[in-house]
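Lay summary. Proteins are chains of building blocks that fold into shapes, and those shapes determine what they do. In this project we predict the shape from the chain. Here is one chain we studied, written as its sequence of building blocks.
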Amino acid sequence: MLGAIIGDIVGSRFEWNNHRSKDFELFTPECEPTDDSIMTLAIAKALISCEGDYAGLGGKAVYWMRRIGQPHPGCGYGGRFYEWMYSDNPQPYHSFGNGAAMRVSPCGFIASSLDEAKYLSRSVTEVTHNHPEGLKGAEAVTTAIYLARTGSTKDEIRRAVREAYYPLDFTLDEIRDTYRFNETCQGTVPQAIEAFLESTDFEDAIRHAISIGGDSDTLAAITGGIAEAYYGVPDNIRQAAEGFLAPELLAILREFEDRIG
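And here is the predicted shape, written in a compact code that computers can read:
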């Protein structure tokens, strides 16, 4: 899931100031982890806390998203998610926002089968984003990550996404000039997956995601999770990204990585 955090940090400075090129400095003092990283780590903590028994994962996801997320009120939560985060009685709100997809990468990394990956994705998503498009977006990302980390080729990943989720009937060059900010799963997840599919290595995947503009941190977070599963993360990029995480967040990252080996 570190790839998702890296994409979020790199993309954070471009969310409201899009950069439609692959030529930019990855990390600058303007970068920061946003809600994408915070919620990814919260889902990771929920999965760890299940200790292999995922029957109660949904409740644990609610608990850990709120426990880890509430101390960070200014990290970029969407309006309805913010209300959910601080509500006395948090309930799903029929959302298909791309927040469903940006936080789900730990499910693809910890699952022992594709069916389990899909189950985990649904369990952590339906507690907020219970609209069919929200569930689909999260599952598409989880599926791509699971397939990438278990040896599937890009052609196989593309085929799986096309058959079950999105047509992927465009290239990044075709949409770069016209693509605009979009907070929905259906307007973010296909573009993020395509950014991975057109990439040559982990860093190139992040640069592809940033280069089309839009919701840059979330796009790059989704792309980064898949790219990590397929390529791994270079040590120099890992070290730079870890420097942006507060100690308590870095501890969750390391706990999760120790858990999955």
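What the prediction tells us: The domain at 2-260 is CATH 1.10.4080.10 (ADP-ribosylglycohydrolase fold).
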